[in-house]
Amino acid sequence: MPEITIIMVEPENQGNIGAVARAMKNFGLKELYLIRPKDEIGEFARRIAANAQDILDNAKILTSFEEVKKEFDLIYGTTAIPAKRSTNVLRITITPTQLANIISDAKGRIAILLGRESHGLSNQELEECDAVVTIPSSLEYPTLNVAMAGTIIFYELFQKMWYKKKSKFKMADKKTKELLIEKLKILVSRTNLPPHKIRLITRAFRNFIGKSVVSDKEARLLLTAFSRVDKAFLRKGENNGYKLTRKGKGDLG
Fold first, then answer.
1. Is-contact 97 156, C-beta < 8 A?
2. 29, 94, 180, 201: which could join 24 in a potential S-S bond, CB 3.0 to 4.6 Å?
3. Confidence of residue 10 (pLDDT cuts 50, 70, 90)
4. Between the CA atoms of 150, 153, 158 and 159, what dihedral angle is there, to the nearest 10 degrees?
5. What is the sign, positive or negative, of the torsion defined by CA atoms of 135, 141, 143, 148?
6. What's the CATH superfamily of 3-161?
7. Among the residues of the chain, which ranges form H helices?
8. d(Cα 202, Cα 158) in Å, to the nearest integer?
9. What are the domain boundaries of the chain?
10. How far apart are the C-alpha atoms of 74 and 104, rounded to whole Å?
11. Distance (Å, whole) CA 25 – CA 48
């Protein structure tokens, strides 16, 4: 079973903090983090939370998003604005049901980010996420209240994982997955693609990894394959009179 933490980014209303805590309690989630809250956990938040006082009492206050990046193996963001065009790779999203399917058999620390009430998560914050979740809703009014959105996501997680007692396999850790992404970036950089295409391909691969439950064994097999291909690139380049650098640029030998 993964360890799931709910993180509210700069929450602006203590009523929503209380409502998120209550929904977490309803669906078996225990750990709540708040990044730079704009309102306190006051009496109103506690009234709304009802029997979820323990979640509010143990809520952890963070000062920056950097703390999240250091602490978790997977980070999932949320947005009410999915991609309208296939070229907007950053906002190609998954549904709460897909999220539950992806992480239900995973093992490790997972963060789910709930954005600000006024304007959600920034593009920069979404860029740091392994994948982005959106809740399908009416085009007439697609934006859900943050606590309502959280409740839907928590329900889907609970429904999928209630009877799960332990993971079926060891999940690849964050360091291994970052190494996978870096290896792919190096391979692509050895081609003649322009820098913006390399960035898009790297982001697309990060999305792919973030939307998948990658076992440690699978990740290490891919690393082996990438390393073999990389060595083949180097040998071919040297045979043709070039010396390839780690970043893929060729120098005349």
1. yes
2. 29
3. very high
4. 140
5. negative
6. SPOUT methyltransferase, trefoil knot domain (3.40.1280.10)
7. 14-26, 43-49, 53-57, 66-71, 96-103, 123-127, 146-161, 174-189, 195-210, 216-239
8. 32
9. 3-161, 174-252
10. 13
11. 12
160-194: b (≥16 Cβ within 10 Å) or e: bbeeeeebeeebbbbebbebbbebbbbbbbbeeee
pLDDT at 1 (0 to 100): 64
List Cα–Cα distances, 73 to 59, 68, 130, 132, 173, in angstroms: 20, 10, 9, 15, 6
Structure tokens at 165: 């007692």
Instruction: Estimate the share of the chain in helix, then strand, then coil, as percent rounded to the nearest 5.
Output: 45, 15, 35
Tens of pLDDT along 219-234?
A: 999 999 999 998 888 8
Residue 104 clears pLDDT 90, i.e. is over it = no
Task: For residue 33, give the amino acid letter.
Answer: Y
Q: Return d(Cα 72, Cα 84) in angstroms, integer.
A: 29
Report which residue type is found at 166.
Answer: K
- As beta bridge partners, residue 242 has 252
Residues facing 34 on adjacent strands: 8, 61
Q: What does the block give as tokens for 239?
A: 């045979």
Mean pLDDT of the chain: 87
Most confident of 77-81, 104-108, 178-182, 209-213: 178-182
Q: How far apart are CA 128 and CA 77, in angstroms?
A: 9
